[in-house]
Design brief:
- It holds the Pfam family CarD_C.
- This is Transcriptional regulator.
- It comes from Deinococcus malanensis.
- By secondary structure, this protein is an alpha+beta fold.
- Strands 4-3-2-1-5 form a 5-stranded antiparallel sheet.
- The longest helix is centred in the middle third of the chain and has 18 residues.
Length: 181
Amino acid sequence: MNLLKHTAFQIGDRVVLSPYGIGVVCGTCERPVAGQAHTYYEVKFPATVSRAYVPVADPASTGIRRALGDQDLHDLMNHLQNGELELPRQWSARHRLVNDILAGGKPYELAALTCQLRRWNVQRGLPDLDRQAFRRAIRLLEQEVSDLRNQLARQVEDYLQEVWNEQPHVQLPAPLAAASV
């Protein structure tokens, strides 16, 4: 009996499971837990040898979700370029919020975070921990679109690469700027 016909995920579905990243549902299996057999999705992660087993009865409890598809890329690009995210100026509050966003792995939140941190980077440069978060958000988004094979996916990847390599705008003090002319 094919258990996948009546469940949320099908064999071959691309999924995201934090902290593993992008995986593929490769089937279901039964595993004993406390003397009872339970059915699990078996998820393989192509970049590693890791596997995860997600309960078919309650996959949402693990945070698993479908990976972005081609139809989602326009919205993702919009969030990357125009996303609004109110980040606290105080470091400890900002750090907590940023870590929650990174751990949650929701692509539109990651895109809005990337957009906001990019703004700050261009305006004044980022402190080290914000820069690490910025790069982590970019890497997570790159993973999300890496297996998609259309023109918009390539545009998103190119945009993320451009953002990754962008240098902060550093304004020279007035006397030095005038002296170098």
